[in-house]
Amino acid sequence: MPEVTLRHEIDTDEDTFWTKIVFDEAFNKKLFEGALKFPGWKVLDSKEDDAKIVRRIQVDPPVGDLPGPVKKVIGDRLAYTEEGTFDKAAKRYSFKVTPSTMADKTKVNGELWIEKISDKKIRRMCRISVEVKVFMVGGMVEDRIMADLRSSYDNSTAFTNQFIKEAGL
Fold first, then answer.
1. Which of 11, 113, 164, 166 has its CA 20 to 30 A from that of 105?
2. pLDDT over 70 at 160, yes or no
3. Which overall architecture, per CATH, does domain 3-167 show?
4. What sign does the dihedral 36-12-9-165 (CA atoms) show?
5. 88-121 pLDDT, tens per residue?
6. What is the value of pTM for the model shown?
7. 150/17 Cα distance (integer angstroms)
8. Which segments within 79-120 are labelled E, that is strand?
9. 40 vs 32: CA distance, rounded Å
């Protein structure tokens, strides 16, 4: 099962990152549908109490060019649901991703947290593991998911830092 830990520096403080970036619906719409060019992104459900925030998000990523065998398995459209829980005390967001196709053969989960660098700079850390159990093409699908994740997180960092600068956050 491939696993990766992504690290990106974000020019803001911890509280702003969680409240104005991660859990801000308007920001995420701009990020996913604008900067990342995803066909769709929406919050399906969100609940908050003193200890945690629990939310479900539907994401429609661009499919792009896929190798023939992968496209045959996935099809022309892919969507996924992210179910995540933010532990307010630990300040960690754990999530599970369920794709619209091959959900019984695919496991994607991860954890997002930050490390403080200075008063207005943090390091976003995201550990993600991917497992696709499909004969002959599972490894290719895992590689594609990992490449897309890296690209999305890299691109989101530049957008996020620009947004923070323009919004004065």
1. 113
2. yes
3. 2-Layer Sandwich (3.30)
4. positive
5. 999 999 999 998 887 898 899 999 999 999 999 9
6. 0.88
7. 19
8. 80-87, 92-99, 106-118
9. 7
